[in-house]
Design brief:
Two copies of one chain form a homodimer. With about 220 residues, the first copy, chain A, is mainly alpha-helical. Chain A has two domains: about 5-70, Arc Repressor Mutant, subunit A, CATH 1.10.10.10; about 75-215, Four Helix Bundle (Hemerythrin (Met), subunit A). Chain A is built from nine helices and three strands. Chain A has a three-stranded antiparallel β-sheet with strand order 1-3-2. In chain A, helix 4 (about 75-95) packs across helix 6 and helix 5 (about 105-120) runs antiparallel to helix 8. The longest helix of chain A has 25 residues, at about 190-215. In chain A, about 35% of the residues are buried. The interface of A and B includes residues 55, 81, 85, 86 and 144 of A. Chain B binds a DNA duplex (30 and 30 nucleotides) through helix 3.
Chain lengths: ~220, ~220
DNA sequence: GTATGCGTTTGTGTATACATTAACGCACGA
DNA sequence: TCGTGCGTTAATGTATACACAAACGCATAC
């Protein structure tokens, strides 16, 4: 149970602090500083930082500390382009896999939750269910590497979403798209699943990038 | 000029040994062992291993050493699926970017070199030029993250290619495909660039996977 | 006021020490 | 012969020590 190394603890603690905004994008932090804050020596902190760096969450620069990576509008455009392609592939593969209704239960639940959240005007719950839908979709695509790449990219999106979630229009079309994708997967229609999800993501991309550019979050 | 840290040295030395087959896939190596071989302490070796692990080249398992990741036929299928999508996107973006003939010189050269290598029956030179073509194609797509993901995936392909290069049929169709993609990019035809490259990669994938499965390189 | 150079400070990169804990072997019992 | 349990061994995870080099401040010169 408590078989968790300090490195693992450091990774999740740092991730949490980054996502919570406690370590704001662009800020620098010395290894010693973080080590003290986490109650461990520099060694595991360094190793954790190395892993987070590989995922693009931080950058280690000699003598300037560990910098929490900023996410610009350009970055977001890059990330969404990748997500668009890889998730759409996953959707197509999921459709080809001929899953049973039972296998798709998690997707169905996520869709229902999104509808409910939208009706209740609970954007935070909506975002959580949306995440769940996309995560499950990728899992059904059955490509471990793809899942990993997507999850790294989605981490970045999550960071940006913290600032954009309440600025954007109600995601009504989004729910409709998800339903179409779900049905296409259920009946084994790979092309529709792929193309619908592709358009869905591309629309999200354009909306988000416009939003970020308008609000000049270039270096946030 | 010696401005190279031991970690950097360890990373490139290990990469080289892995690609050269000196550290065969599936083999285990203790940190101490590698440290001694590289003439440094365990610390930089550990950090290097951590980075290579993030790229999927090794796996660190407590008490069992650093394992050089095997590449199975399934892995190759996963990897090619990702490459197919991302490179095709890059091709489309490159076409949209309206590059001049001069900008595309590197692509043209790579194509010429591949023709020459094919005529001379020099498969190794062909593979090198092929790599060059794909790398430049992705670079022209102008997505830094995509480039990074693709280069990690291509590293894995390179490892498998060492064993498959001389088993597969002459890549004649391949050269023809590249030429079509090049021309599509030159005239700004994103759809043709995308679709042609997509089919090109998918064909390569099917051929390679069949080859690997046939020769039962499941755990190599 | 601005620029240049030197001394100091301080963070990092690396080596090393050490405790912990998993793997291995061996003995013992069934 | 095979399985089980314990003791030993040894590899890792983490802490710590230390040298080097870069950043900063201050003084001096223009």
């Amino acid at each position: 149970m408590g078989a968790m190394s300090n490195v693992e603890r450091a990774v999740s603690a740092l991730r949490q602090m980054i996502f919570a905004g406690e370590l704001p994008p662009g800020s620098d932090h010395l290894e010693t500083e973080l080590a003290e804050k986490l109650g461990m020596s520099r060694t595991p902190v360094r190793e954790a930082a190395l892993m987070l760096q590989a995922q693009g969450l931080v950058e280690m620069r000699p003598r300037r500390g560990i910098r929490i990576s900023p996410v610009s509008a350009t970055d977001m455009a890059e990330i969404y382009d990748i997500l668009t392609e890889l998730e759409s592939l996953a959707a197509a593969r999921a459709a080809e896999a001929q899953y049973s209704k039972a296998d798709l239960a998690t997707l169905a639940t996520a869709i229902r939750d999104m509808d409910a959240a939208l009706a209740a005007d609970d954007l935070r719950a909506w975002a959580e269910a949306d995440d769940r839908f996309h995560r499950e979709l990728v899992r059904l695509g059955r490509n471990a590497r793809l899942s990993m790449v997507v999850s790294v990219m989605r981490d970045q999106v999550r960071r940006a979403r913290a600032t954009t979630l309440f600025m954007r229009p109600k995601p009504k079309q989004s729910n409709e798209d998800h339903r179409v994708v779900y049905q296409a997967i259920a009946r084994g229609d790979a092309k529709t699943a792929h193309d619908t999800h592709h358009a869905h993501r591309q629309a999200a991309r354009d909306m988000l990038v416009a939003l970020l550019e308008k609000h000049q979050f270039h270096g946030l």
